[in-house]
């Protein structure tokens, strides 16, 4: 149970802006709000999670394990069916974790959104992609908020976790929710806590990653903080929804810009006969003033290739340009073409062979190592260009046996990955390593293909000199 002293101390240490909201003239009344806070901490509040993907499903598991009653919502009936029979559909989330959800009556999964009225806290974990013009596609957020509005009642807390531009909660969601006649900050509450998932990273699971929390007002902030506190997650309160929304963009822009830097260095150093990977390994021995980032064949996933452009779009509203962000985007999006160029030159210089009619194997189509998530993978752009140039194309990925439907690259949907064997490899003129999954036999690949284009330094442990000669870094 929480105490008056705990929340008085919490609110006292908020920013000056929040302190003004809890003075004697404020609408905030700690005594009146305490029952909701107590229900959260006592695990008597029902938690709803909308969107049961790479962000939502881990939250379901964490909230349930902490002792909450949890309702999972998704429009995909296959996810609901899998969860209700104790099956996991995400590689790094174990079957045991899903089976634990079924051990008591505190969890249910459904596509019936009328059950939102039974929830005290609603966590939104829906996609925020870009349109083909690189503008934010807010359709999932809008549709989900409208669905919540249909079932909104008093004393509910709505928390958006999706990465988005500063102002989304206040400018987009709040009017939709208030169209019900209920007033935000009085009848219901709003928070924002950006997801920080790193799928496949066993060192930093959901429970181990601190959560930034922002609120519409002091009440909303206290409630939002209480939710994640009750999950057992460390929280970092900030002064506003907009600040919390800006933090996730800042984190991913930082990564995008630094990855662009090492990608550019890779191209420059290669022209000089210098291995950028060796440079990075030596540079990172400096104990201060340097942080290693690594080059690659392009950016993938639902964060780094997309999120920076949310700020670019929002900045235009203020008549500002984001030159660093856009330049980084240009460098990173050029990397698949750099890989293609290295492949083309290798075939020509070594075998006097053109791409057309050659047999090429793509190794890895997931956007990062050791996950079954292929969203925005640079492998698909490389594969499409190879097909357009008359290549006989196959792929291998132990995590993705078949290419599923996606927003782009429809011509690749339905491709089946090959089995990686000595016999299967012998027919390929080149293998292109796009994703460096662990536990792949890269020496086998190098040994039995004519040339290997390595965009991830995955062949670094292949040391035989005759095999090293068959590797081209990209």
Description:
The protein has helices at 4-12, 16-21, 30-41, 56-65, 77-84, 95-101, 139-151, 168-178, 218-231, 241-271, 276-283, 307-317, 323-351, 378-388, 422-425, 442-448, 465-468, and strands at residues 46-50, 69-73, 107-110, 121-124, 157-160, 189-192, 211-215, 235-237, 359-363, 392-396, 430-433, 451-454, 471-473. The protein has 474 residues and is α/β, with parallel strands linked by helices. It has two domains: 4-238, NAD(P)-binding Rossmann-like Domain (Rossmann fold, 3-Layer(aba) Sandwich), CATH 3.40.50; 258-473, NAD(P)-binding Rossmann-like Domain (Rossmann fold), CATH 3.40.50.720. The strands form two sheets. The chain has an eight-stranded mixed sheet, sandwiched between helices. Strand 5, helix 8 and strand 6 form a beta-alpha-beta unit. Helix 3 runs parallel beside helix 9 (218-231), helix 7 runs parallel beside helix 8 (168-178) and helix 10 (241-271) runs parallel beside helix 13 (323-351). 43% of the residues are buried. The model is unreliable at 1-8 and 13-28 (pLDDT under 50).
Gross geometry: elongated
Strand content: 5-15%
Which homologous superfamily in CATH is the superfamily of the largest domain? NAD(P)-binding Rossmann-like Domain
Helix content: 40-55%
Question: Could you give a short description of this structure?
Answer:
The protein has 474 residues and is α/β, with parallel strands linked by helices.
